[in-house]
Specification:
Blueprint: H1 8-63, E1 71-72, E2 79-80, H2 149-157, H3 163-167, H4 171-179, H5 187-190, H6 193-201, H7 205-212
Antiparallel strand pairs: 1-2
C-alpha cells in the first residue's frame, strides 16, 4: 500500500508546482493553436481572392484575344497575364550624341623682340700725366727724397717721368698708382711724395729744405 502524507497540506504543496507547469504549457499550446488557425484563415482568404482575381483576369484576357492562361506566383499574390497578340513595344533607340568640334587652338603669340646686348664698357685708360711747368728742376723724379732710380724706372713704365706729374695727382689717382708699386707700396704716403713734388714744381727751394732738408743732400 502506498504511503500517503500524514498532513493533507503537504500533498497540496507537492502538487502545486506540477499543476502550475502543466497549466502554463497548455496556455502556450493554446495560443500557438489559435495563431495557427488565424494565419491559416488569412492564407486561405488570400488564395480565394487570388483565384477570383485569376478568373477575372482570364476572362478579361479571353475578351481581348489572349491565347495564354494567366500565371500566378507561388504565394498567390501576383498575377501575370501573357498574350501573344499584344504587340511588343518598340524600344526607342538612344538619341545620337552630338559631339562638339574641338576648339581650334589659338595661334601662339609672336615672340617678344630680344633686346640688343649691352656692350661692355670700355676700360678707362690709365691717365697720362703731362708736365705742367718748364722748370728743369721739376723733371727729375729722383729729387724727391725716398724715390730712387728703381722707383723712377717703375714710374716711367706708368708714364710718370716729371715731378709736376706727381704734384698734380688727385687722392684717387695717388691711391691707384700706389697699388701698382708692388714691393714699394706705401712709400708714396710715408715719404710724402706729393708734398715734395708740389714744392719742387713750384720752385720753392727754401720751403722744401725747411720741411724735408737740404735739396740734393
Amino acid at each position: 500500500m502506498a504511503a500517503t502524507p500524514e498532513n493533507p497540506n503537504q500533498a497540496i504543496d507537492f502538487m502545486m508546482p506540477i499543476t502550475t507547469a502543466h497549466v502554463a504549457l497548455m496556455v502556450v499550446l493554446a495560443v500557438l493553436a489559435v495563431a495557427t488557425i488565424v494565419w491559416g484563415s488569412i492564407l486561405l482568404r488570400r488564395r480565394k481572392d487570388a483565384a477570383k482575381q485569376v478568373e477575372r483576369n482570364f476572362e478579361i484576357a479571353e475578351a481581348n484575344g489572349a491565347t495564354h492562361e494567366p500565371t500566378v506566383s507561388p504565394d498567390g499574390t501576383q498575377v501575370t497575364t501573357l498574350s501573344e497578340d499584344v504587340a511588343e513595344q518598340p524600344v526607342p533607340s538612344p538619341a545620337p550624341r552630338t559631339v562638339a568640334p574641338a576648339p581650334t587652338p589659338a595661334a601662339p603669340p609672336p615672340p617678344a623682340p630680344r633686346a640688343a646686348p649691352t656692350p661692355d664698357p670700355l676700360p678707362t685708360p690709365a691717365p697720362v700725366f703731362q708736365p705742367t711747368t718748364d722748370n728743369p728742376a721739376a723733371t727729375g723724379l729722383t729729387q724727391i727724397k725716398g724715390l730712387g732710380p728703381k722707383l723712377a724706372v717703375t714710374l716711367a713704365d706708368f708714364g710718370i717721368t716729371h715731378v709736376d706729374q706727381i704734384a698734380a695727382l688727385s687722392p684717387a689717382e695717388a691711391e691707384t698708382l700706389d697699388a701698382k708699386l708692388g714691393a714699394f707700396r706705401g712709400r708714396m704716403a710715408r715719404d710724402r711724395w706729393i708734398e715734395q713734388a708740389k714744392l719742387l714744381s713750384a720752385g720753392d727751394r727754401a720751403g722744401y729744405e725747411a720741411q724735408f732738408g737740404k735739396l740734393g743732400g
